[in-house]
Amino acid sequence: MMFKRGIRNQLVTVMLLLVLSVLVLLTSGQISSQQAILRGELQKQTDLMLENLYNRALFQSNQLHHQVEEQIASFNLFEMTDSLNKISENSSELKWVILVDKSQNVVVNTAGSTIQQNKYSDTLFQQDYIVEVKSIGKSLSEKPDQLVTEKLRDANGLVFRLPVQVGSGPWGQLMVGYSLDGVKAQVKQSEQENSAIVKSYSLRSLASAASILLLTFLVISRLAQRLADPIVRLTDFAQRLSKGDFSIVNQVNPTGKDEVGVLTAQFSEMAVNLSKAYQDLEEYNLHLEMKVDERTEQLNQQNENLIKALNDLEESQQQLVHSEKMAALGQLVASIAHEVNTPLGAIHASAGNATKYYTGYANSLEMLFQHATDAEKHLFDWLLHNAGPMESMTTREERKVKRKALQLLTESGSDRAEEIADRLIDMGLADKTDQIISMMVGDNSFRIIDSAYNLTGIMRCNQTIYTATARAAKIAFALKSFARKDHFGEKSDSNINEDINTVLVLYNGLLKQGCEVIKNFQTLPLLNCYPDELNQVWTNLIHNALQAMEYKGVLTIDTLSINIENQPHIQVNISDTGQGISKQIQERIWESFFTTKVAGEGSGLGLGICKRIVEKHRGKIFFKSRPGYTTFSVVLPISD
């Protein structure tokens, strides 16, 4: 019955999933098409409403413009103000009307009288779309282009700016602002109606799909039942036969001439032959059991001895691996200490400089707050806002920039030109010397620049401290990650590129002695491995390459994904430009305790341990060498 349920359910499930997939695709396509049609209609409707509003507003703005020019020419300002206020109150779309003279003083503001006679500012309608009407006789039948319509969708309002002329000369400007709230409210209502239409259409589509799916289930269920019954009967016979019930040998009868019937006939013949063979097999088994018991006892004893030997061997190998890793880590200590001391020295120097800058700035506070003029304060504020970190330039570039700044300062008559040039270079403002000279007014210009130099110097010191601490943290993180993962001898997923970068960070002090590193890293999948052991492989190969080059040369590391016999693998190539491995010793480099290094530099275990670690991961390690070039390659399978 279990088999019956299984094959029937599988047939029904597969067919239903197929039908369901087709229904989902069709339903989703229809709903998406309906949504696209409604969105298109809504966009057309929105564009039409915005176009109508634009034309109405343009027509009304032209009328207001003619009215304002006539009343200004007639000196009817009070009547004009009252007329504009009434028009604003009676129009639902018109938000306000602002009239300014040519001095940018507000003459009329229907939105409020608080800013009248004050200076006009465009901040009143930053979120509005502004239309500059330069030609008063602009055709009212001209439609706004697509760009204008798109900008109106995102704006809060529409503003027309019209020039006002009295006689032959300009008098001021007229700004007319219109609200888009009505249009947006209609658009929102249309979106809600469209959502209701799509929801109703979706429910009808889902109901139709459910009905089709139910009918399909009934048809497929009946068909699966007819197909599964003969197979179920044959399965029941096979299960009874597998339990030694040979009484059913003559009960198996073919039920048809199709494939199942032919299989049943062959099964019946097989059952008869199996019954005869079973009787002979019972007698042979009695004799064989005695032999197996005797041999099993001997094998158990040999297995116990073999397990003990393997445990001893594994323990010895782990001790060798750990010893070699500690030796490699010991070789890195001096380099890491130097790498940490460098940012610490930068932090110490920056802290002292920050104190000096703070003292210099504090001494100038009285001058800044009590004696500095507005122009000098403006110069100080400009320097603070535009100063940046000191640019990284070569000595030649710095001399060139300083000469140019010094020339400009000398020509301007500055008596402390060289000191000012030095400070501008440190603040990253040397390229703006001409702009700074235009703001240097008064006798305190140097003191103002010196105060800004001291205050921004604290920022530069903080940036140096931040960079130094980030460098020290990177070294600490790399050292922590060097032996981080498989403390309990369990595999974990690891990123080979990140592991190699960690080793390179630890070797940064040695690499800076004159070695160039070229990394050609492809994006690699995660590798299920023993990361700590593979880290030892990368450490040993990189350290050997650096020693072969005497820490001066080109170290090239390539990582790539390859396929070997249609199976994905990861390959790592570590190449150096050292003296190479002579042909006389190439066959011996994998031997334990074989080394060509002087005493104290190597134990001869590194490459042998690397090979065992790679083989433990079911990988391969090999090399190619010639004078001036050596490459070690490690190939690891991705999946077990």
Helix content: 55-70%
Strand sequence of the main sheet, in spatial order? 2-1-5-4-3
Shape: flat
Number of domains: 3
Which series of helices and strands comes N to C? Answer: HHEEEHEEHHHHHHHHEHHEEHEEHEE
Decide which structural class fits the backbone.
Answer: alpha+beta
Number of DSSP helices? Answer: 15
Whole-number radius of gyration? 44 Å
How far the N terminus sits from the C terminus, by CA atoms, comes to: 37 Å
The chain-level mean pLDDT equals 77
Task: Estimate what percentage of residues fall within beta strands.
Answer: 5-15%
* Uncertain stretches of 5 or more adjacent residues: 598-605
Topology of helices and strands:
Layout: H1 2-73, H2 77-90, E1 94-101, E2 106-109, E3 129-132, H3 146-154, E4 157-166, E5 169-179, H4 181-242, H5 259-363, H6 365-371, H7 374-386, H8 395-411, H9 417-426, H10 433-439, H11 445-481, E6 492-494, H12 496-506, H13 508-511, E7 515-521, E8 527-529, H14 531-548, E9 553-564, E10 567-576, H15 606-616, E11 620-626, E12 629-637
What report would you give on this structure?
With 640 residues, the chain is α+β, with helices and mostly antiparallel strands. It folds into three domains: 7-187, Beta-Lactamase (2-Layer Sandwich), CATH 3.30.450; 248-479, no CATH class; 482-637, Histidine kinase-like ATPase, C-terminal domain (Heat Shock Protein 90). The protein is 62% helix and 14% strand. It contains 15 helices and twelve strands. It has helices at residues 2-73, 77-90, 146-154, 181-242, 259-363, 365-371, 374-386, 395-411, 417-426, 433-439, 445-481, 496-506, 508-511, 531-548, 606-616; strands spanning 94-101, 106-109, 129-132, 157-166, 169-179, 492-494, 515-521, 527-529, 553-564, 567-576, 620-626, 629-637. The strands form three sheets. It has a five-stranded mixed sheet with strand order 2-1-5-4-3, covered by helices on one side. Strand 4 and strand 5 (169-179) form a beta hairpin. It is flat and about 130 Å long.
